[in-house]
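Lab meeting notes turned into a lecture example. A postdoc, R.K., suggested we walk through two folding results consecutively so the class can see how the record format repeats. The first protein's sequence and structure tokens come next.
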Amino acid sequence: MPGRRSVYEGTYEGRPVIIKVFSSRLHGQRHFKREVKGLELLAQRNIPAPRLVMTGRNRDGWILVVEKIEPAEDVLTVYNRMSEPTETCSILKPVFKQLAAMHTAGVLQKDLHLGNFLWDGETLYAMDPAQMRFESEPINSSQSYCQLGNLATMFWGYDRSLKTELFDVYFKARGWTLNNSAFDQIEKFAATARAHGLEHTLKKSLRTCTDFVRHTSATKSGVYDRSVFEGQDLTAFMEKIDDIMENGKILKRGNSSLVSRIELNGHDTVVKRYNHKGHLHSLRHTIKGSRAKKCWLLGHRLCRLDIPTAKPLAFIEQRKNGFLYQSCLITEYVEGQTLYQLLKDAEASDPSAKTALEQSNQLIQKLVDNGLTHADLKLSNILFTKTGPVLIDLDSMHRHRMHFILDFYAKKMITKFHRRLEDI
């Protein structure tokens, strides 16, 4: 994190170590001391954590050196490699057992997620002690249920029996009994945590963090997915984006937008440029935000809600005299057949057409269940891939917080969608 913290791998007296440098002039010393104190308290309470090797200070900031656990991976990485719910339970159960041990010792991880546990195949190590609170007594049931709810957001779609199996690991470790009332309380906390976590993730997607980097030049600014743009000269890329699009495969050239398919660092992508359409148009989007930014946030929202869409990779905004001039959105390219083409080519009795319609209706219902509608849901905006339908072109998508407004626009969306089906 530039200007705040840097992390390095190295060796100390022949041993592999992790070196953290806290470089912020305002907060560096405080963050450094909080992490050192957390590691010391974890050791006192017999909670496995990387051992503190040494501390110090140089001109770059406050330095913390801890042992590097080898071989080991964070639990989130291990979890993401697993596909079946029953398989993921094998790594989740040790996490629930470890969480129970931490709570019994009065340790509360305020930033609780699977990435803050390190797994070497036998032992779980607690990470990020700077985000922990240390109590003199065991964590009470209300706070414990809240933490269990935070973890439950990771397996929101699991059935009740699997969730019960996981929660029971924690309850037995605490000497408690899991009943229906406790289960329902945890589920409520999980629903709240899921909603808050989604909004927090979307805010993070607009700034420099672990997954994204925000970059600004003289007239342009943008946010980029590190997995695609790491190491690239972003200033030069932003200045050349128009030429790069023209040299790609033009998919659409209109007054409102230009769409081009290009290859970026080995990734097949689509770039959509929203063109300048006059001073009033610029003023309006300067106030309410660019269409590229809106689709970037909507794309990440859909990804977090497990609604298939083209993954957003970057968005760029260009300003002139302080006003938004034009913007670009970069997404992954999705290979597939549109719902329109699929239904047009299919026989009346073709089972694939029936399946496609069922999956499309399920996709639409999932949008509504999450408070979303699409005002221009064309049959060409749903692509069918090997894994099912994928929603593209999010320009006309809206999020509704009030149920009666959602009901009105959802009914309108569904009616228009079925009318288009009848026109084939």
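The second example is placed directly after the first for contrast:
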Amino acid sequence: DHNIVNSIKVYPNPTDGQVSIMLPSTNEVKITVYDLNGRLLLNKVSTSDNFIINLDKYEAGVYVLKIKMGQNETVKRIIKK
């Protein structure tokens, strides 16, 4: 459902370290973060509609955020300054 995927907010982007994710519902969501080499950095499952990921310990660069809610999945790029 494109409405669910389009209503996901990821901010700030670019970020200094913390990224907030606002989701349209509180159904179970799986959040994964990868570097551009495909290495898994973070893997979380949540039932919250507001989620914060912390990239402080990672170097500046581009990261891939994958958000999966049921059958819906979206991929966003995060830039860490």
